[in-house]
Write a structure and sequence with these properties.
By secondary structure, the protein is α/β, with parallel strands linked by helices. It has two domains: about 130 residues, HAD superfamily/HAD-like (Rossmann fold); about 60 residues. About 45% of the residues lie in helices and about 15% in strands. It contains nine helices and seven strands; from the N terminus they run ββααααβαβαβαβαβα. The strands form two sheets. The chain has a five-stranded parallel beta sheet with strand order 5-4-1-6-7, with helices on both faces. Helix 6 links the parallel strand 4 and strand 5. The longest helix is centred in the N-terminal third of the chain and has 15 residues. It is globular and about 55 Å long. The mean pLDDT is about 95.
């Protein structure tokens, strides 16, 4: 029996999670969530606890970190605290180079983040990422946070790319489940683990998607 050849499509867009993939924002978020904890009069959030919940969105934070608080007031506390904490956010060593290279190759670039819209924009501007993106989507405007498919689905629509022509790069199970929910191939990359984003992407871009 003749084996059927696998046809692979060229990847036309890469969707990136923000925190832990393009930037190391752990220190900043540690400051932010504890500023919110003080504001709401709850117990401080340990580094170990932050690792457990890192990557979830404000709705989950309301449930797991600040019980009884509304999402809107948590987002307001985060926005206020991040204004001073953003200086501690570190850009990945090859983040700019990767985004610039994708742009030169005609591959569309987007960020899909569980960070609320206003805070995400502040971080993207402060790190020089905003000008290197073709689209970005944060939590807001009724969009559900990952692992729901809303954020990557909105980014794909903005880019004019179908799910089978895209790749989603993330560091958490929230990212992987969101990719699966919208039928986009997934690549795991964790900035904290070291390694090169460019090298992690190179093989997948060369292979394409089935």
């Amino acid at each position: 029996m003749r084996r059927q050849a696998v046809v692979r499509r060229r990847i036309r867009a890469v969707l990136f999670d923000l925190d832990g993939v393009l930037v190391d924002s752990y220190r900043a978020w540690f400051e932010v969530v504890n500023a919110a904890a003080r504001r709401f009069g709850v117990e401080p959030i340990s580094r170990e606890r932050l690792v457990e919940v890192f990557g979830q969105g404000p709705e989950e934070d309301a449930r797991t970190l600040y019980p009884g608080r509304q999402v809107a007031e948590i987002q307001a506390a985060y926005a206020e605290a991040m204004a001073s904490a953003a200086g501690s956010i570190a850009l990945g060593a090859d983040t700019h180079a990767v985004l610039d290279d994708l742009g030169r190759r005609g591959i569309r670039r987007a960020v899909v983040t569980n960070t609320q819209h206003a805070v995400a924009r502040h971080v993207l501007e402060a790190t020089g990422l905003l000008e290197r993106l073709d689209a970005w989507v944060g939590v807001g405007d009724g969009l559900r946070e990952k692992p729901a498919p809303d954020l990557p689905a909105r980014a794909l629509a903005a880019l004019g790319v179908s799910p089978d022509e895209a790749l989603l790069v993330g560091d958490t199970h929230y990212d992987e489940e969101a990719a699966r929910a919208v039928s986009v191939p997934f690549l795991h990359f964790d900035l904290k683990a070291g390694g090169s984003l460019a090298e992690a992407l190179a093989g997948r871009l060369a292979e394409g998607v089935p």
